[in-house]
Specification:
Elements: H1 3-28, E1 54-63, E2 73-85, E3 90-99, E4 102-113, E5 118-125, E6 135-140, E7 143-152, E8 155-164, E9 170-178, E10 186-195
Antiparallel strand pairs: 1-2, 1-10, 2-3, 3-4, 4-5, 5-6, 6-7, 7-8, 8-9, 9-10
């Protein structure tokens, strides 16, 4: 092989290497990752209890002796007033009702946790003047469900509260107990509320 032939052969070899190099680099490069779908933004429930603001009439049916097999229900009639605090991140509810067992006065504190996006509701009766254990939960599709642990007749139980049938001028509240870890529930308190006529238009919506 003469000098000219060797030079042409070397030039062809170098050209081949440069042509093949991008192909090899492309083959070795990892495929780009598929973009992951973004997570949906967590819903802000700060105003979920605005529908309860104002003055209400309440019709209550209460199981006389919960978790005892009793089927005797007591009816009570009363009023409820509620106002918001901290621009809606807290509410204070006052209830008064009368029935065969006498006069009932109750107070409920609602608090919104903006980090957890959950509400807590804690009840106190004028009979003992102490706050009970909080129930914690949230609203979904116009229905609120809250659960907590408490003591009833010296036994630890679960308590569940449900807010439903919500409109601007009416809503429903139910309370239930479970003494088997949530396998079964016994409803023991039902309140049907309608807004006072002079208070129409002051409530919020979900």
């Amino acid at each position: 092989m003469n000098h000219l032939t060797r030079g042409l052969f070397g030039l062809m070899l170098i050209s081949t290497i440069f042509v093949l190099s991008p192909i090899a680099a492309t083959a070795q490069s990892p495929a780009p990752r598929a973009a992951l779908p973004s997570e949906p933004a967590t819903r802000d429930g700060q105003h979920d209890f605005d529908f309860t603001i104002g003055a209400w009439k309440t019709h209550i049916t209460r199981l006389q002796k919960p978790l005892s097999g009793s089927t005797t229900w007591i009816k009570m009639e009363g009023t409820k007033t509620e106002r918001k605090i901290w621009n809606g991140r807290a509410h204070l509810e006052e209830i008064e009702a009368d029935g065969p067992t006498g006069h009932m006065q109750g107070l409920t504190l609602f608090l919104y946790n903006p980090r957890a996006h959950q509400w807590s509701q804690t009840f106190a009766s004028s009979g003992d003047g102490t706050l009970g254990s909080p129930l914690v939960g949230a609203f979904k599709n116009g229905r609120g469900e809250f659960v907590g642990q408490d003591t009833f007749n010296d036994k630890t139980i679960l308590v569940r509260a449900i807010w439903s049938d919500i409109t601007q001028d009416s809503h429903k509240f139910e309370q239930a107990f479970s003494d088997d870890g949530g396998k079964t529930w016994e409803t023991n308190f039902i309140a049907s509320l309608t807004r006072e006529k002079q208070d129409r238009g002051s409530g919020g919506k979900l």
